[in-house]
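Hi Q.,

Before the meeting this afternoon, I wanted you to have the 4'-deoxy-4'-aminopyridoxal-5'-phosphate prediction in hand. No need to reply - just skim if you have a minute. The sequence and ligand are here:
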Amino acid sequence: MSEATTPRFRSVLDRFVAYKPGKVVVSPEGRSFKLSSNESPHGPLPSVVDAIGEAARNVNRYPDNNATALTEAIASFCGVPADHVAVGCGSVGMTQMLLEAVAEPGAEVVYAWRSFEAYPLLVSLSGATAVQVPLRAETHDLTAMAGAISDRTRLVFICNPNNPTGTVVGRAEIEAFLNRVPEDCLVVLDEAYREYVRDDDVPDGLTLCADHPNLAILRTFSKAYGLAGLRIGFLVAHPLVAGAIRKTFLPFSVNSVAQAAGIASLAATDELLERVEGTVKERDRVRATLIADGWTVPPTEANFVWLRLGVRTMEFSEACDAQGVSVRPFPGEGARVSIGSPEENDAFLQVAKAFPHRN
Ligand code: PMP
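Predicted structure with the ligand bound:
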């Protein structure tokens, strides 16, 4: 196509690099351990597979666009009326919906950095202006974030636990922050990893909503609930907030198979949370082993660990690749390693032990 006939795209795309998902690698011996996307190492429960199979029979029909039964199941699980809930195509989809609801030229969105990769991507696509506040000691600096809020700030993301560092902010800090945020600015507490939190000082965001009508809690079925491939996220907030966000829903973007699997997974919460308990034990074992081997690993409340490796990040990631262990490198910064099955974790620990440098 000659230049003259090239379609004109938004200039934001000139510098834009699309989201890069965690990769899969295979060692020369054929070993492959995917620890790059913070997924559950377990396949779906038989009851969930049955629900998926049943729903698959009807995929000639559009899904329930309101995801009524799923929304009601989530609401009852969270102990709120259904009008406090909005669902979306993964919490990434919900993040985009949130931005659709608030972003207009000149609007600012505040978030910590480094944090979840999708924030800068989706903020820049939305046309809003990103205001990134550096982490302090690998943790959200909520005092600095409160200081970064201006009268143009429409949205703040707090990722708790933070991806990729695994670190958390506690109740007192969050409450002090919420008390400083203007009421017309939406605060989103992204709790994608909530089920892995064992630190009692970290509040369950759902307990904060009643006192803060500008607070939205973002959750996902992709991690503890093991449905990453089906793409379901949800938000709990004041009905006026949830209602505004629901308006931005891309029609039918939570499909009928996903809706059925979400409902079946909530019905199997006890079994799924038992699996989470195993992951938490593995997380603590992985971190303790790394520390015993001389690594510095920030305390993590999520299903991953963070190794700050600076200029050695890619060297480390390549050493992992060679053994079939895929981790998530952030070049020049560090590597995030998901907690997998004991066997997968052992494969990673072996590479880490053999790596000639410590961080
Ligand atoms: N928020 C955070 C902090 C995440 O780490 C992730 C997944 N990596 C998500 C949201 C998105 O999850 P999903 O879209 O699969 O629900």
